[in-house]
Amino acid sequence: MVSPASPVLRIDRITRQFAPNIPPAVSAVSLDLPLGELLAMLGPSGCGKTTLLRLIAGFETPQSGTIEIAGQTVAGSGKWLPPERRSVGMVFQDYALFPHLTVYQNVAFGLQKHQKPAELVKQRVQESIALVGLEGMEQRYPHQLSGGQQQRVALARALAPYPSLVLLDEPLSNLDIQVRLRLRQELRDILKSAGTTAIFVTHDQEEALSIADRVAVMRQGHLEQIGTPEELYREPTSRFVAEFVTQANFLPAQRHADSWKTAIGSIPLTQTIAADSSDITTLERSILMIRQEDVQIQPHPQGEWIIRDRQFLGREYRYSLQNAIGETLVVRTAADRPLAVGSSVMAEVNSGLLRVFSEK
After folding, report:
1. d(Cα 307, Cα 65) in Å, to the nearest integer?
2. Predicted local confidence at residue 2, as pLDDT
3. Are residues 32 and 181 in the same domain?
4. Domain termination residue (choose one: 208, 225, 241)
5. Is 84 helix (H, G, I), strand (E, B) or coil?
6. How far apart are CA 114 and CA 207, in angstroms?
7. What confidence tens digit (pLDDT) does each residue in 65-94 have?
8. Residue 114 pLDDT > 70, yes or no?
9. Is the same domain home to 174 and 321?
10. pLDDT at 113 over 90
11. Which one of 241, 264, 283 terminates a domain?
12. One domain for residues 50 and 86
């Protein structure tokens, strides 16, 4: 039993390298996961997030470092526990349901492996099916279910044995966009209702920010930054995180006295902060991060920016702008009145503190 003060998962400098002549897939990653937290592992393809998930599950063996689950060392320090002894539930990208078994039988499968009494198995299967909202479908087979329903069966099967930790590998990626959007909130609600501690892997930043309590961004096997969705979006500590999570604009900036000279005008130094907390007054050149929603545009015949493209996104427009020297700017505005492609506009920053990255 894990006390509320103890982390359910503790990873200490875990490393996995598949061949000596290539960089490690996971390199010296450390993190703690508190009881009841939902953590998203976010990053591009090949960044190591799925390998880290497989190390936690026991499908891969680390070269160094340790993994503890519910206070027990499951890998490292001369110990190794196979997946079935780690108290971990797994939800795979392709659901991995048994096609010849009913919904009831699929959910019961994990409990039967633990040799539970029949009455307890029946009770827990019914509870798990009810938790994911599939009452009345117990006797259906996977091919008789929609993709979203199959995903819920896989989740019920993972939750049924009361695991200490649930791992989900790209759980929504095989669903169409409308089902995926609906299931985001349902997935979070189900996991929170069950009081489950969980990690889910995704490459979709919007999905990670909307579901998770915290997000861990990975890059080339390293843990680049971990924090709440708000922290990552508002306070990225590296340009990689800023680009991957916020999809912001990055403009060259040159310091002149007490301001930055940029393509969008002069920005006072007092309106900026260094992403790495260094002294911005020591920088002569930098890269200024401006979020798409933090720019205001107005039609003007002498405007320095030309609208090259406009996309209607429902509640907002996204404009792609370009100036005379080829610099680009992406802006999101409310969908109240569209501005014509090819028209000239003035652009100005309408936010408070902006983040600055050292020019490299």
Report:
1. 52
2. 55
3. yes
4. 241
5. helix
6. 33
7. 999 999 999 999 889 999 999 999 999 888
8. no
9. no
10. no
11. 241
12. yes
Helices (H), 24-117: 49-57, 103-113
Residue that is written with structure tokens 């009831």 in the block? 104
Q: Specify the length of the chain in residues.
A: 360
Using CA atoms, how far apart are residues 77 and 314, in angstroms rounded to an integer?
54
Q: Which domain holds residue 337?
A: 248-358
- Under 8 Å CB-to-CB from 303, ≥6 apart: which residues? 343, 344, 345, 346, 347
**Given the structure tokens 């999101």, which residue do they identify?**
332
The percent of residues in the chain predicted with pLDDT above 90, rounded, is 72
| Same domain flag for 78 and 184 | yes
Q: In terms of Cα–Cα distance, which of 92, 35, 355 is closest to 213?
A: 35
How many C-alpha atoms does 111 have within 13 Å on its Cβ side?
Answer: 24
d(CA 240, CA 237): 9
Are 166 and 203 in the same domain? yes
pLDDT at residue 3 greater than cutoff 60: no
Q: How confident is the model at residue 119 (pLDDT cuts 50, 70, 90)?
A: confident
Task: Provide the b/e sequence for 315-352 (b: ≥16 CB within 10 Å).
Answer: ebbbbebeeeeebebbbbbeeeeebeeeeebbbebeee
Rg of the chain over CA atoms, in angstroms?
A: 24
Closest C-alpha among 126, 90, 91, 135 to residue 107:
126
Taking the C-alpha atoms of residue 204 and residue 313, their distance in angstroms, rounded to an integer, is: 18
pTM for the model: 0.89
The separation between CA 166 and the C-alpha centre of its own chain, rounded to angstroms, equals 16
